[in-house]
Design goal:
Layout lengths: L13 E4 L5 E2 L2 E2 L7 E4 L4 E5 L5 E5 L4 E5 L7 E8 L2 E7 L9 E7 L2 E4 L9 E6 L5 E5 L4 E5 L2 E5 L5 E7 L5 E7 L2 E8 L3 E4 L10 E4 L5 E5 L2 E5 L6 E2 L9 E9 L2 E7 L5 E7 L15 H15 L17 H9 L3 H11 L7 H50 L12 E4 L1 H15 L3 H22 L12 E4 L3 H23 L3 H12 L10 H6 L2 H12 L4 E8 L17 E6 L7 E9 L5 E2 L14 H9 L4 H6 L8 E3 L1 E2 L1
Parallel strand pairs: 29-33, 32-34
Antiparallel strand pairs: 1-26, 2-3, 4-5, 5-6, 6-7, 8-9, 9-10, 10-11, 12-13, 13-14, 14-15, 16-17, 17-18, 18-19, 20-21, 21-22, 22-23, 24-25, 25-26, 27-28, 29-31, 30-31
Helix pairs in contact: 1-4, 2-4, 4-7, 4-8, 4-10, 5-6, 5-10, 6-7
Length: 650
């Protein structure tokens, strides 16, 4: 299953849970012991553990791959370099204690053992950059660097180093205990470890430096980010709860990963894509007075009005930015001088100043035009999805046995799980199309539509990963969904306007679009939307079936209190599961799907025909075609929430 994460970064902010299902020797990754996660700059996630060794996860293919660590030996700690290379501390026993450890470099299937640490020290944590430079924190508290085959201790001074991170030259950091508290410290060549007095938080717990110069710090569930050359930023996105943080790592200023373990020991790995529109604004590049004169002249030339600014056209939906780009791209300095001499006072700006400004403005125009095209593609995709929605919905309510929303059933109450609809359609796209552009399209749709849910759900709206149901009258279903898609388009417009008026956002988005990572042919929008059809059906069935049908439970034979520990294997209408209580005769636990509101008190002489009406058999056939687990349907798991009642026999 593919990860719902776009290449590089996303437009708006969202948390996405990584798929953690594969089994190795009978152990699911959700149950690994003491996992460690770390991510490289190319968004390859690595996981090491005591019991299932070393794994890597590709955000492009959305799959976990086991890395052979001398059979199944423990792999702790882990320090990624890129998608093909990683350092890991490998244990000497299979499925056993993690010490002593051999630091091993895995590169394209080749394994190279590094020398042991000095004085029989053991690696507690490791950090590496994309150039392969490795830093190691030993269990003794000593930090080491390696050069060739020689380990060199890095003096700690009076600090107790607790965690280290390395994002390349001049980007090495640690969390250190200073007195009774922990602090963020930076390693500066020639000066050693220096406290960062600008960090606004207290008692940092996790830290991760990236190759783009950014630095992330975690305090509790709070995230702090500092990009290269900028001040610390307190993010509004917080780590999902409940769960205990067992690992944290970031790949860039736009993306971080956190592993969480719940009270039952279940592991999840969450990815935060920090939306480019949620970043700190970046102003246009500063210009000298002479360069400002060039900019003013260019604006006058292309717009035809003195005192105008070409940047004012970027958010204008009617402005043809491609024509403006072509006009300026072919304008030579000689032509500029002639125009300037005829329209402005001397002196004429130098060719050097003209080249700087014309290069900047044409780049901005190219990026703004690219964002405008992306805006059109996203809105077209939203509209195509709405069309699929309109085609699927009547089929669903017909199979369920409901009237049209304005018909006799209009007063029925339904729970509309908008978050499930968003996630379902996006996963449908990402599952069918495996290229990066489709992953972006899926992530963008989920992000934009998900952000628009709050406009419908109001103050009770919760983040997508904890989405609550919107209870509405059946009559309002079509209007609510229409508003849902309208909100997505409005948010697309708003996002575009935000991006094209900020140099940092425009540069990031425009360069990514022009690289082809976010591009898909306009003719494929209908194919992307069609890929979400089955997930749409499931989501709508989950909302509409409970409006007409219910689940009834009874004991067939010896009537005793229901035991919820029995897991049924279902037939079309009922599921018998034989149970023999101590000192009693065999009985059957039976679940029926029948009409909502059927009486719960019945005669013991009734047979199963008396529990009708039942849904049309075609409904269950269609659910099974869609891959619905009927155990989930009858027991109310994974989005199914039919009312349940226990029959009482008179």
């Amino acid at each position: 299953m593919n990860a719902l994460v776009s290449p590089g970064f996303s437009l708006t902010t969202s948390w996405v849970e990584l798929y953690l299902d594969p089994l190795f020797l009978g152990s699911p990754l959700t149950k690994v012991t003491a996992p460690v996660i770390a991510v490289s700059a190319d968004d390859t996630v690595y996981m090491g553990s005591q019991d299932v060794g070393l794994w890597s996860y590709s955000m492009t293919t959305g799959s976990w791959v086991w890395i052979n660590t001398y059979q199944l030996r423990p792999a702790l700690p882990v320090a990624p370099v890129n998608a093909n290379a990683v350092y890991a501390g490998i244990g000497v026993q299979w499925n056993g204690p993690t010490t002593p450890l051999t630091i091993t470099y895995f590169n394209n299937g080749q394994q190279t053992n590094l020398p042991l640490l000095p004085n029989q020290d053991q690696p507690l944590q490791m950090a590496a950059s994309g150039d392969g430079q490795l830093w190691v924190l030993g269990q003794s508290g000593t930090v080491y660097q390696i050069s060739g085959q020689t380990w060199t201790p890095v003096p700690n001074g009076s600090l107790a180093i607790l965690k280290i991170t390395h994002g390349g030259p001049k980007n090495t950091w640690a969390i250190a205990r200073i007195g009774a508290d922990t602090q963020v410290v930076e390693y500066i060549a020639g000066k050693g470890w220096q406290p960062d007095t600008t960090f606004p938080g207290k008692s940092p717990e996790w830290i991760s430096a990236c190759e783009d110069g950014s630095l992330w710090v975690v305090v509790g569930t709070t995230l702090y980010l500092r990009t290269a050359g900028q001040k610390w930023q307190l993010l509004t996105a917080t780590i999902p709860q409940p769960g205990t943080v067992t690992g944290f790592s970031a790949s860039s200023q736009y993306r971080c990963y956190v592993s969480l373990t719940d009270a039952n020991g279940n592991l999840t790995v969450q990815c935060l894509s920090l939306g480019v529109v949620d970043r700190t604004p970046v102003p246009w590049p500063a210009m000298t007075a002479a360069q400002q004169n060039v900019y003013n002249a260019i604006s006058w030339y292309v717009i035809g009005s003195k005192g105008s600014s070409i940047r004012s056209l970027y958010p204008d939906k009617l402005a043809d930015l491609d024509i403006l780009f072509t006009k300026l791209e072919s304008w030579t300095y000689t032509e500029f001088v002639a125009w300037y001499t005829a329209n402005e006072n001397p002196p004429v700006p130098s060719q050097a100043d003209w080249s700087i400004v014309i290069g900047q403005v044409t780049t901005e125009l190219a990026y703004a035009a690219a964002m405008r095209k992306l805006q059109g593609q996203l809105k077209d995709l939203n509209n195509q999805i709405a069309i699929v929605n309109g085609e699927v919905l009547p089929t669903v309510w017909g199979m369920v046995g409901l009237s049209a929303p304005q018909g006799p059933d209009k007063e029925s109450s339904i729970d509309l799980w908008l978050g499930n609809i968003v996630e379902g359609l996006a996963w449908g796209i990402a599952t069918v199309f495996t290229d990066g552009a489709a992953a972006f399209a899926a992530a963008a749709v989920a992000s934009l539509m998900g952000s628009g849910i709050s406009a419908i759900e109001g103050p009770d709206h919760k983040p997508l990963q904890n989405n609550n149901a919107l209870t509405i009258k059946y009559a309002a279903l079509v209007d609510t969904l229409t508003q849902f898609y309208l909100n997505a388009n409005l948010l697309t417009d708003k996002t575009t306007e935000t991006v094209v008026q900020d140099w940092g956002m425009m540069r990031a988005v425009g360069s990514t679009i022009n690289s082809g990572k976010w591009f898909w042919p306009e003719t494929e929008s209908d194919l992307l939307a069609a890929a979400a059809k089955d997930s749409f059906e499931v989501s709508f069935y989950q909302s509409l079936i409970p409006a007409k049908w219910q689940i009834l439970y009874t004991l067939w034979g010896n009537y005793i209190e229901y035991d919820w520990t029995y897991t049924p294997v279902f037939t079309t209408y009922k599921t018998p599961v034989t149970n023999t209580p101590p000192g009693s005769f065999p009985v059957e636990n039976v679940w029926f799907c029948n009409l909502l509101g059927n009486p719960s008190h019945v005669s013991s002489s009734m047979d199963e025909d008396d529990f009708s009406p039942y849904p049309d058999p075609g409904l269950f056939s269609r659910l099974m075609q869609l891959g619905v687990d009927l155990d989930d349907f009858f027991l109310g798991n994974n989005g199914w929430a039919l009312q349940q009642a226990t029959l009482v026999f008179e």
